[in-house]
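User: Modeling request: complex.
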Amino acid sequence: MKIAFRPMTPEMVEYAYEDYRSSGLKDSPVLAFSQLPEADRQLEIERATLYRKLIVVATEVVGWIGVRPRPELGQIHVGFALFSKFRGKGLMKPILTKRIEVFAKEEYETLRREFPIPELYATAEKGNIPSIRTLEGCGFLKTELEPFPKGFDGIVFRLRLSE
Ligand SMILES: CC(C)(COP(=O)(O)OP(=O)(O)OC[C@H]1O[C@@H](n2cnc3c(N)ncnc32)[C@H](O)[C@@H]1OP(=O)(O)O)[C@@H](O)C(=O)NCCC(=O)NCCS
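Assistant: Request completed. Predicted assembly structure:
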């Protein structure tokens, strides 16, 4: 499978939120996005454009994947979504595997001073089986850490990067 990562655009950030919402998934950050005042929505779009990449499989844009340093948590977080018509085919596991590989080889070094332990974190909602299975399939392990934001009914996963 030919997987490539391309820069995210503001239009695709909005498309992804709309696709997520219209596919009936309930997720607090997404609900929050549609309810944000315009200025905050623009901030969220800027942030997402910075940390997320579009995923291209063969010639199709199938979703996004983000790696975001969170200095306030002392953690680097990964997040991802496939656009609705590409879900349910096991696509994300090889995509996440490749994104982790690229991060470990080409990007972690520049963050090492601030994040000396080579590891990635991800949070999945407790009932989100496809996400949990994807993370576990890529080697992430459950932790007892408190999910972020507070009150989010999720499980925090951690992956130690091999160097
Ligand atoms: C999470 C997401 C990226 C997973 O994408 P995907 O590659 O299409 O995942 P699949 O639906 O193929 O499922 C992945 C695995 O979960 C298993 N699975 C899915 N639903 C299941 C269920 N109800 N019960 C048991 N297993 C299930 C699949 O069999 C597969 O297992 P395998 O890895 O052993 O083959 C996708 O569902 C998505 O974009 N969801 C919306 C956004 C989201 O939730 N992002 C994650 C936030 S942390």
